[in-house]
Amino acid sequence: MIIDSEYFDNVKADDSLHSFIDLPINQKARNDFKFLCNSSNFLVKNNVNNYAVSKDGKMIGDFFPVGYDVKNKSVAIPEKYIETEKENLFISVVCYDNNEVKDVFVFKSQEFKHTGLFSMFKYSPKVKQYAVVLGDGENKKLKQSSFGVALSEFTK
Question: How many angstroms separate the CA atoms of 32 and 18, rounded?
Fold first, then answer.
């Protein structure tokens, strides 16, 4: 059996939501995600903790960017940020390798409902956090969640 600490070892139960957003890697991810969207002709508006993203007048949804160092096994996110019932909420994981953007993955928040042993999505009730197991980001299954591929599906 996989132990929770394997995915959640670098995170602690913390009721202070802003301490998560204020982590330097998450601040960098927010800036880099906004830059990527603007460079790709998406309109980005700040919406509390998320970015509201639209293209050609069509609203795509709210995006919550988080940073991920590929040296880690997974990225953990407090459950308070992932509303699994919200249809237009997306989690954007900005992957860094040696402090440079390697890739950006986009996941619907509803995908986090499907946690399990063989799923890339994990949940720990102990620390009340979700995790996405990404490894080095080279898994072929992840390519469908890559920024360009994922957003092209929503702008058709």
Answer: 19
- The Cα–Cα gap between 151 and 19 comes to 29
Q: How far is CA 62 from CA 14, 51, 55, 87, in A?
A: 24, 5, 13, 10
> Strand, helix or coil at 61?
strand
Single out the residue of 82, 77, 100 nearest to residue 19, CA to CA: 77
Q: What is the pTM of this model?
A: 0.84
* 5-154, CATH topology level: Trna Endonuclease; Chain: A, domain 1 (3.40.1350)
The label of the residue with tokens 């986090």 reads: 112
Measure the CA–CA gap between 84 and 82, rounded to whole angstroms. Answer: 6
pLDDT string in tens for the chain (156-residue length): 344 555 555 554 444 545 888 899 999 999 999 999 999 889 999 988 899 999 888 899 999 999 999 888 889 999 999 999 998 999 999 999 999 999 999 999 999 999 888 888 999 999 899 999 887 667 777 888 888 787 777 665
